[in-house]
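To the wet lab folks,

You asked to see what we're planning to order before we commit. Fair enough. Below is the target structure as tokens, and below that is the sequence we designed to fit it. If anything looks off to you, flag it before the synthesis order goes out.
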């Protein structure tokens, strides 16, 4: 009896079928078919876009830098309202492009598509869109394109959730020397302001052997640095048949020969283990950088946010991490203007920022997301008040980050050289373990290699340096 095909084998069959279609079409037109993917949102989406482009490349599309392409994908984000508005603005322009190029196909996917009201709006007002899919079924891109080509009408395929993880599909990496690697999908935390659990579904972890296989593969292709991706990496492995902790996963990834650096995003303060701190303290590869979102410094608001830690617990954790990992760089995410935020609450946030002395922070103005508990809370904060607090927060963060930046001047740091400097000829840009950049003399052949660089001068949030070895 013929064995049942795996999902990835089925998808490779669709890719083959689409490959013939693309070849035929491009013969008709006398030119290659082109594609472009515009990505909004976080590293998860960046990674998903690499997978989508991997499929498109396999079926014969040529990736181009412009949106004037034969297949245009928008991988959307809905974490804040402005991410959402951007897409609708963009689609207006795309409609005009499609009128100029009748061969053009438009695909929409990603987090925003998991919201029913968005789908309704697209089906009603954006009829020129060809395929619409969500976050759970990106692996089906070839199959959806095939369905579109066969039926001649709009294809909408949105799943509510999934337990499935489809492995071994192609991926087209944006950088040759670094990449993201998913370790888990979804989120179970339901922070009261956040839409991610609704659009990315329940937590599911990839098997360690699949993760190690991918890391080994990309390293063999020249990758020096991997970023392990998950919405709450501390929950990694809990639902596996053979449970495994995130700290143990890091120990395994560390063993991959040739890999120089490991980063991860994002840990949650509520369950960051001592074991993880230990791994970071002793590891040669895990970067000495902790991105630990705090969201607010007010215990009262943290409770309303459903974050499961207090101001004191966050401070205690930060202190412990800094003691055990000397020189660790510390960054965070902060939301300003969560419903009911008072001046006192906000000052608690400033207090934590000063006490921890963050190297940098992503700061966000609270955005109301339909369907989340916070959206129906009373006391939404006035816009002007938020704006004022936001500016004050940035001013304090500027102080703490400049102070930290100064501390390293004169030190020699190992950097990964990422690009030639576009502003100054003969210069390259390297990334420090702590994620800051340093510019120094070099050439494009060095891209993707490591170097030791003396930090000669600080410029607030980057450095000028001199290479001290090859
Ligand atoms: N899983 C990660 C990050 C997810 S989203 C974590 O828990 O830290 C990235 C950041 O977006 C969050 O840390 C939060 O600061 C911000 N964010 C999420 N929802 C938001 C909202 N409704 N309004 C403003 N910022 C939000
Ligand atoms: Fe959103 Fe909270 Fe999950 Fe992060 S941990 S994705 S903020 S619900
Ligand atoms: Fe946005 Fe989805 Fe990431 S909502 S922030 S792209 S998980």
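Sequence we intend to order:
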């Amino acid at each position: 009896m013929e064995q049942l095909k795996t999902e990835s084998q089925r998808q490779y069959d669709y890719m083959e079928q689409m490959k013939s279609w693309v070849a035929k079409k491009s013969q008709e037109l006398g030119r290659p078919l082109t594609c472009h993917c515009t990505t909004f949102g976080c590293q998860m989406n960046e990674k998903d876009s690499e997978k989508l482009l991997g499929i498109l490349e396999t079926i014969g599309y040529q990736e181009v830098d412009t949106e004037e392409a034969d297949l245009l994908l928008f991988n959307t984000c809905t974490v804040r309202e402005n991410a959402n508005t951007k897409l609708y603005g963009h689609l207006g322009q795309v409609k005009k492009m499609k009128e100029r190029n009748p061969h053009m196909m438009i695909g929409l996917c990603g987090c925003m598509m998991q919201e029913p009201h968005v789908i309704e709006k697209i089906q009603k007002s954006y009829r020129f869109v060809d395929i619409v899919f969500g976050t759970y079924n990106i692996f089906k891109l070839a199959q959806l394109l095939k369905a579109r080509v066969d039926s001649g009408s709009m294809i909408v395929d949105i799943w509510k959730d999934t337990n499935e993880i489809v492995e071994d599909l192609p991926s087209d990496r944006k950088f040759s020397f670094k990449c993201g690697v998913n370790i888990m999908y979804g989120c179970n935390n339901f922070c009261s302001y956040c839409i991610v659990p609704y659009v990315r579904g329940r937590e599911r972890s990839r098997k360690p052997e699949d993760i190690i296989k991918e890391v080994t593969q990309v390293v063999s292709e020249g990758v020096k640095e991997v970023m392990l991706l998950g919405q709450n990496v501390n929950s990694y492995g809990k639902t596996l048949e053979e449970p495994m902790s995130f700290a143990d996963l890091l120990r395994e990834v560390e063993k991959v020969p040739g890999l120089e650096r490991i980063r991860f995003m994002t840990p949650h303060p509520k369950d960051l283990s001592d074991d993880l701190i230990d791994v970071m303290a002793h590891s040669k590869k895990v970067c000495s950088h902790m991105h630990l979102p705090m969201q607010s410094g007010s215990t009262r608001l943290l409770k309303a946010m459903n974050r499961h830690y207090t101001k004191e617990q966050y401070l205690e954790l930060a202190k412990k991490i800094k003691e055990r990992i000397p020189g660790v760089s510390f960054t965070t995410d902060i939301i300003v203007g969560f419903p009911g935020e008072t001046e006192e609450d906000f000052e608690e946030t400033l207090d934590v920022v000063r006490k921890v002395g963050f190297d940098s922070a992503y700061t966000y103005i609270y955005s109301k997301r339909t369907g989340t508990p916070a959206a129906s809370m009373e006391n939404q904060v006035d816009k002007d008040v938020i704006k004022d607090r936001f500016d004050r927060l940035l001013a304090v963060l500027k102080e703490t980050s400049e102070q930290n930046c100064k501390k390293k001047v004169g030190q020699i740091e190992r950097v990964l050289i990422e690009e030639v400097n576009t502003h100054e000829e003969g210069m390259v840009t390297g990334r420090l373990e702590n994620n800051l950049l340093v510019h120094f003399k070099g050439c494009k052949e060095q891209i993707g290699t490591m170097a030791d660089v003396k930090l000669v001068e600080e410029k607030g949030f980057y450095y000028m340096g001199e290479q001290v070895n090859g």
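Structural context that might help your review: The mean pLDDT is 95. The chain is about 35% helix and 20% strand.

Thanks,
Computational group
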